[in-house]
Amino acid sequence: MEHLQCLTPDELKRRPDLSTFRWRLLAHGDSWFSFAAAKVDAHANLLEELVFGQPTVAVSCAGHHNALRRMVDLESSPDFIRLLTDPSAPTWDGVLLSVGGNDLVSAAMVPAVQANGEPVPMNLRLLRKQTEWGAPSAGVSRYFSEDGWATFGEYVRANLKHVLSLRDAGPSQGKPLFIHCYAVPTPRPAGAESASGAWLYPALKAYAIPQADWAAMSRLMLSKLAALFKACAADAAQYPSLQVFDSTQVPIAPAALGSSGISGDWHNEIHLNHSGCFKIARAWSVHIEAVLSGKPLVTAPPTTGRGRRGGGGGGSAPASA
Question: What is the top-level taxon of the source organism (predicted)?
Fold first, then answer.
């Protein structure tokens, strides 16, 4: 097995001949894909742990620059748009995207009341304030706004359709678009070094959701995002050649509730460390190569061992991207 070789768009200009590779991929995405030095030093990168049976290259537009913060930011990524739609661009065997996670976190962080005192309608937020909670028999769903989720789902579906339309406007028309779901994080006070987090932790605190329900709330939201992605992939007429890998099914060591540093397979609240990236990437690699090769998809067994940069599970694992 060979690790995926990653090039930036600038490196592609200096090395335009990719004929030595069996599979040629275009990639873009959020911080799970970013090769920005600060992020690689801080936490792991999913792309660098992908492995294939044949030589494979990805031109990553997450590259050494800023990663996507929202799905709509794809529009402001000229390299990605050019390499996907320009008639002179390579014909990619597939497109890899890491999207939706930041959008979900941002939606969860929308407050019930704006800074000016104006209430935020239920259909524009994912969480309910205490006076809106449902019956205890509903479990953690009592804290969740289904109206807000409907709005969020429309946003995700529209963005996925747009990306597929860009793909089909260029030489890679009809090639598979691969997206992954996200592992389920433990809401906790473990922010990024840039002070951009924690993420779910302050949102759940602001809505006074009991700490005993935080882990279940996180699973609810990430599972709903996975179900949304998979429902889109199942609708081949509207989302042609969309391939979704359900990362929520890969066994990942959870972080300890209340921990503030590296814990389990996590570097901080929403970013995996190297052992976590290794586990998800090895399973996703099987899925990607099966689709590219036209082989039947099978459920990948749980992965063990060390990644490219090392790091086993637990608090001793090195930081990741």
Answer: Bacteria
Beta strands across the sheet bearing 5-7: 5-7, 56-60, 23-29, 94-98, 177-180, 242-245
Residue 95's H or E segment, with its range, is strand 94-98
Q: How far apart are CA 46 and CA 281, in angstroms?
A: 6
| In a domain? residue 91 | yes
CA separation for the pair 225, 240 (Å, rounded): 19
Q: What does the DSSP assignment read for 148-162?
A: HHHHHHHHHHHHHHH
Domain membership of residue 197 (yes or no) is: no
User: Tens of pLDDT along 24-79?
Assistant: 999 999 888 876 554 545 557 899 899 999 999 999 998 654 566 778 777 778 99
Residue 185: CA atoms inside 13 Å, Cβ hemisphere, count? 28
Token pair for residue 192?
């990024």
Rounded Cα gap, residues 284 and 281, in angstroms: 5
- CATH value at residue 61: 3.40.50
Query: 10 Å Cβ neighbour count for 208?
Result: 11
Q: How many helices (H) and strands (E) does the chain have?
A: 8, 8
Which of residues 23 and 39 earns the better pLDDT score? Answer: 23
The answer to whether residue 105 sits within a structural domain is: no
How far, CA to CA in Å, does 249 sit from each of 25, 58, 146, 245? 25, 25, 24, 9
Peptide bond into 198 cis (omega under 30): yes
Backbone angles phi, psi at 98, to 5 degrees: -120, 100
Phi, psi of 286, rounded to the nearest 5 degrees: -60, -45
Q: Considering its fold, how many domains does the chain have in total?
A: 1
